[in-house]
Design brief:
single chain, 306 residues, alpha/beta, Spore Coat Polysaccharide Biosynthesis Protein SpsA, Chain A, 2 domains, 10 helices, 50% helix, elongated, Glycosyltransferase_2, Glyco_trans_2-like, transmembrane, transmembrane helix
Length: 306
């Protein structure tokens, strides 16, 4: 009988966990030819998440959990869950029930009967997200596809079931700055997408603020694209051409360069652009600096069921 490891990153999910466990347990019991294990990863929660996970582990032998010493981020939690998964198939799910448990049976059926290594959920619609957040998300995915040349589209998230070969290939990538959507695309493997409708959280509140989403987007671009590092050269060439053209036009038609405000504005503009691109280059240097430290991706404070 096959074993499916259901990996669930958790951060302050005390309100959502009971409903999630009940819903997914019912589905897990109804997958023919497979048995499931639950691997919950408490990402340094400040509420009763760890206490609830400890109770689930004590009452259900299928449940195991890791509790981090602090908040290391969802990417680290997903990596930790995958490292500790023993299943023939591994699936990532959010604890807020926005990933429909009923798709687990279909995902497993696809991997067993069709020639795919991964079966993933393709989110349609953004119910529960504001209009501004939806617009920014769609814009980000258009930018990252252009910059990174990887298959990362809007709606192609973390909810996916993969075979052991794909899981092991992901574990081979040990960089500290992790962007899992990019990693899924980078390792390749044949993936089938199953559409599902996005719904609101079952309980609790989203932990993703605009600030954290923006930081996540920047990390994704910098982790899988070198395009921003090449942009200063192109912009610099355009600015030089514009400066030469300005001088020529002023001498020929303006009687010389005598407009002091224009020069001051130009200097300020050039300095501002220079600082922006220096910041981009600094981001790459800082990421290389963090990688060179060889720090652990996460630190476990407590575990249960292992």
């Amino acid at each position: 009988m096959d074993k499916i490891s259901i990996i669930v990153p958790c951060y302050n999910e005390e309100k959502a966990l009971p409903d999630f466990y009940r819903a997914v347990s019912e589905t897990a019991d109804d997958i023919p030819g497979a048995q499931c294990e639950f691997i919950f990863v408490d990402d340094g929660s400040c509420d009763r998440t760890a206490e609830i996970l400890s109770g689930l582990t004590a009452s259900d032998s299928r449940c195991r959990y890791l509790s981090f010493s602090r908040n290391f981020g969802k990417e680290a939690a997903m990596y930790a869950g995958l490292q500790n998964a023993s299943g023939d198939y591994c699936v990532f799910m959010d604890a807020d029930l926005q990933h429909p448990p009923e798709l687990l049976k279909e995902m497993y059926h696809v991997l067993k009967t069709e020639n795919y290594d991964c079966c993933a959920g393709l989110r349609e619609g953004r119910e529960g997200d504001g209009k501004l957040r939806s617009l920014l998300s769609r814009t980000f995915y258009r930018i990252i596809r252009r910059f990174c040349h990887l298959d990362m589209g809007d709606g192609k998230g973390d909810f996916r079931m993969m075979n052991r070969a794909m899981a092991d290939s992901i574990l081979e990538l040990k960089e500290y700055n992790r962007y899992m959507k990019g990693i899924f695309s980078f390792v390749g493997f044949d993936t089938k997408w199953i559409p599902f409708r996005n719904i609101e959280r079952s309980a609790g509140e989203s932990k993703w603020s605009f600030r954290s989403l923006f930081r996540y987007a920047v990390d994704g671009i910098l982790s899988f694209s070198t395009v921003p590092a090449a942009m200063p050269g192109a912009v610099g060439a355009l600015l030089i051409a514009a400066a030469v053209l300005t001088v020529v036009l002023s001498v020929l038609f303006g009687g010389g360069l005598t407009v002091v405000p224009m020069l001051v504005s130009l200097i300020l503009l050039l300095n501002g652009i220079q600082m922006i691109f220096l910041s981009l280059l600094g981001q790459y240097v800082s990421k290389d600096y963090m990688e060179s430290k060889k720090r652990p991706i996460y630190i476990v404070k407590k575990k249960g069921g292992f």
